[in-house]
Amino acid sequence: MKKIKRVEKLLTTILIIIIIPVTQTFGSDVENISDDVMVDAFLLEVEQNMSSINTVHAMFVQKKEMAMFDIPITIKGEFYIQNPDKFSWIVAEPIEYTLILTKDKVKKWDKSNGTQELSLKDNPMFKAMIEQITFWFSGAYASCKKDYDIKLIQKEPGILEFAPKKHNPASQILSAVTLTFQNDKRYISKITLLEKNLDITELIFNDVVINSKINRSVWEIN
Amino acid sequence: MSIKPGIKFDQGNEFDKGDQFNPPGKSNDLDKFDKFFNFTGKHKIVLLLLFSLLITIALVRIAKVDFVNDISVMLPDSPELKRTLHFINNSDMSDTIAFSITCKNGSNKNLISKTDAFSEKLKKISLITQVVTGIENFDISKLRKDIITLLPLLLSKEDYQLFKDIENSEYLIEKARQMFIMLTTPGSSFLQTSLGTDPFGWSNQILNNLQALSKAMGFDVELDNRHFVDKTHQYSLVIAKTSAPVTDAKKSQTLLLAINDVIKTFPDLDIVTVCGHKHTLSNQKVVKKDIFITTIIITLSFIVLMLCMFKTFDALTIFILPFFAIIISVFISSFILNSLSFFMIGFAAVIAGISVDYGIHLFVAWKTQGYKGLKNTIRPVGLASLSTMGVFVSFFISSVHGYKELAVFSILSIVICVLLSIFFVPHFWGRKNVIPVINIPAELSTGKSRLILIGWGVIFFFSMICLVNSDFTKATDISAFDGSEPSVFDAEEEFYSIWGGREKPGVIVTQGKDIETVWQDYELIADKLKNNIDGFNSLAIILPSKKQQRENLHRFKEFWSKEKISMVKEKFINATQAYGFQKKAFNNFFGLLESNDLSITSQIPEVLQIFEKHFVKEIESTNLLSYFHDTKENLTKIESILKDFPDSYIVSRRELSSTIGKQLIFDLKKISLFALCWVFILIMFFLRRPMDILLSLLPVVTSISFVFLALHLLSIEVSAIILITLIIILGLSLDYGVFISSADSLKNRKSVIIAATFSMLTSLMGAGALLFASHPVMFSIGVTLVTGIIAAYLSAVFCIPAFKKVLK
User: Fold this and answer.
1) Concatenated DSSP letters for B150-173?
2) What is the value of pTM for the model shown?
3) Which residues of B touch A101 (CB under 8 A)?
C-alpha cells in the first residue's frame, strides 16, 4: 500500500511539473484570444452604434502639449459632423477661426485672411489631415486592424487604444490614439493622441447632440 | 451580259488535232521556243515530280518561317522614324501592362487585399519584371523636409519673390498666427515637423510642381492605403512591366497566357488588361483568319468558275497554278528578304486573281487554236504581265519595306505563273475545245452609246466630287493599320473611362552620353517651353542642371547673409513667442539657412528619384523626357524651338503621323511617277493613235475616281494602303483600256471583251475575297480593288465603244 501511495505521490508530482507550465502556456494564448474576441466584440458594438449616427453636434475643449510650445495650448469651440462627408470645426478661443469640409472642398476662415477655399484633390497634405479627423469620428474601426494594434483598455466606459503598426506611415509620428466612448457607446467623449515626440493632444467633447437637424448655414461661411 | 457555257469559242476553227496541238514536226522548222516546249513535253512526268518535290520543300520551309506582324514594315524607312520607333519599343510606351481591378459583387471591402494577392501572383510570371500597386512608404512630411533642405539649390532668381516680405515684422506676426491655427486644427500632428523646418511654406511651390508632375504621369489615380484607386474607390490599378517586346508575337502570347492563368485564379474579380501585346496577338489572329477565309473563298470561286464556264477538269491546272506560284514565291522570298510579313501574305488572294488571268488567256488560246494559238498569245500575255509587273517594280523605289516585300513576292508569283502557264501546264491540257461564248455587245447603237456616256458622266461627276472632298490628312494615321478585334478596343475604352489617359501626351526626347551633359539642353528646352505650350512637363521645371544648382546655391548664400538670418530670426521668434511657441521651435529652419554643408552630388537627389523612371530612360544613351499635350499648335512651337537642339526630337502620335505622311506622300509621288511613265511607254508602244491613247486611259481615270465614290458611300477613310492599292489598279485597269481601245475590228473587239471578262472575273475573285476580311487594311484593299476593277472593266467594255461610236 505504501508503495502504491509512493507511486501515486510521484505521479502527482510529475503531473504537477508537466501540467503547470502547459496550462500557463496555453493560458496566456487563451487570454490573448479572449482579448481579441473582446476587442472585436467591442468594435462591432461601436461600429453598429455609430453607423446609425447621421449628425453630431458638440462643444469641444482641445488641450495640446506640444514640443513647439512652451505652455499647454487650450482651444475651445464647437464642431458639427454630417455623414458621410461634412465636417465643421468652429474655434472661438483664443483665436477665432473656422474650418468646413464638404466632400472634396475645404473652406477656411480667419479674421486676418478671410475665407479661403481649397480643393482636397489639389492639396494632398490637407486631404491626409482631413482623412485623419474623419476616420476617428467614423466608428468604422474594424477596417484599420491591419494598420493598428487595437487594445481594449477599459470596458465601462469603453476605452480603446490604437497603436499604429510599423508598416503604417502614421507610426513615424503617432505612438497611440486613445478613444474614450460614452457609456452607451454611441459616441466618443474624448480623443487622446500621443505622438512619438511625446506631444499629447486631448480633445474632450461636451453637450453631444446626436442626429439633430443641422442648419444649412453651418456649411457656409458668412 | 450572259455566259453560255459549252459552246465552241470559234466555230470556224476546225483543225487536225494531231498537228494543232504539237509544234511543227520537222526540226528545221523549230525555233528555240518550239525546242524548249518539246523538251518540257517529253519530260513532263519528271518535271512534274521535280515540281511536286519543290512544292513539298517550299511548304516545309514556309512552315518554319516566322511571319512578322510588325507595323513598322508598312512604314517608310527613314532615320527619324526608325529613331522614334526604337524609342517607343524601348520605353514605357510598349513594356507596360495595366490592370484595372474591381470586385464582381460590387463591394470593394477586400479589393486592396485581393489586389495585393493578384500582384504577388503576377510577380511570379517570368516575363514580368516589375509590379506596382501604389506608392510605398510615401511620407509627405519627409518629402517636405527633404525639399526644404534642397531649396538653396532649387530656387531660381525669379523664386526670390518668396522672400520679399521676410524682413517685415507684420508679415512675420501673421505667419506666427497662421501656424498657431494650423497646429490647433485636428489631425495636424504631422504638420509640426514640417512647420519646424519650413514655417513660411517655401517648399509649397516645389511641392505643387511635383504634384503637377505626378499628375502628368499617366492615369487619374487616388491613393487608398498606399494603393492606386479610382475616384470612386471601386477600382484598383496595377501596373506591370514586362521584358517581352511588344512586336514579339511568341513572347506576347506566352505572356498573355500566363496573365490569363493568373486572372482565372481570381474568379470574384473583374480584371481588365490593357497592353500593346494584346494588339500584336489580336492583329496576328485576325490576319491569319483572314488569310484562311480568303484562300477558301478564292479556291471555291475558281472551282465554281472552272466547272461552270469550262466544264473540264484540266482547267483546274490554270486555277491551281497561282497557288503553287505563290508557294514557290514565298519560298524564294524567304531567302531574299530578311523577314516576311502577314500583310504580304494577305495580298496572296489578289496576286492569285491577277496571275490566273495569264493562264486563262493561254488556256482559251490552246483550246481554240491549239499550239499555234498558245504561241501567238504568249506575246500579249507577256506584255500584259509586264505592265502589271511594271507597277510592282515601281514599289522598289519606295522607302517602305513592306511595299518592296510585296513587289518581290508579286513579281515572283507572276513570273512563275506565266512561265509555268507557257511551258509546263499546257502539256497536261486536253484537246477538247469547249469554250463558252459571252454575249456582250461589241458594237452599240448611237442612242445607247449616248445613254451610257450620260450615265457614266453623272457617276464620274459625283466620283470627282468625292475625290476632291476626300480627307487625305488621315491617310497617314497609323491606327488605320491596327485591325485588333473589337474586344481589345472595348477593354481599352472601359479602362480609359475609369482611369483616363486616353489622350497620350507627346514626348520630347533629349539625348546625350550622360545625364549631367544632357540636363543642360533639357533645362534650356524646359525654360523655353514651360510657359509657352499646354501641358508641358519636365523634371527640369523643378530640378536645374548641376551648373545652375551651383549658381542658385551661390545666390542663396549671398542673399541669406549671417546678418539677415539673425535679424529675421530675432523678429520671428518674438512674433511666435506671443502665441506660446518655444524659442527653439524653429532652430531646424534657421539651422538650414545657416548651414554650409549643402553640396551637389548626383543630378537627381534621392528625394526626387521616384520621378526618375518617368523622365529618364537609358536606351543605349541617356534620354531625358519632357511631356506636352499632343496638339498641332504645340508641335509647331516645339519644332521651331528644337531646331537649336539637334540632339532632341519629338515622339508623338501626331508627329509620327506627320513624319510618316511626309515620307509616304513623297513615296507615292515617286511610285506614281514611275508607274505613269511605265504606263505611257506601254500605251505609246502599243497604240500610237492619240484617240486610242486617250480612250485607253478612260478605265484608269474612271476606276480611280469611282474608288473614292465607293469609299465615301462606305464611310471608309482614305489610308496610305488605299493610295498604294490605287497604283495597282492603275496597272490592272490600263490592260482593259489598251486591249479594248486597240481592237481595230468588231471581231477583234469581241474576242478581247471575252478575255477581259475572264480577266475581270478572276481578278474580282481574288480581290472580292478580301471583302470577307476582318482586318481593316485587307478589307480596304478589297473594297478599293473590287470597285476599281469593276469600274475599269465597265468603262472599258461599254464606254470606250460608246465614245468611239459618238465621236465617229
Assistant:
1) HHHHH--SGGGGGGTTTT-HHHHH
2) 0.66
3) none
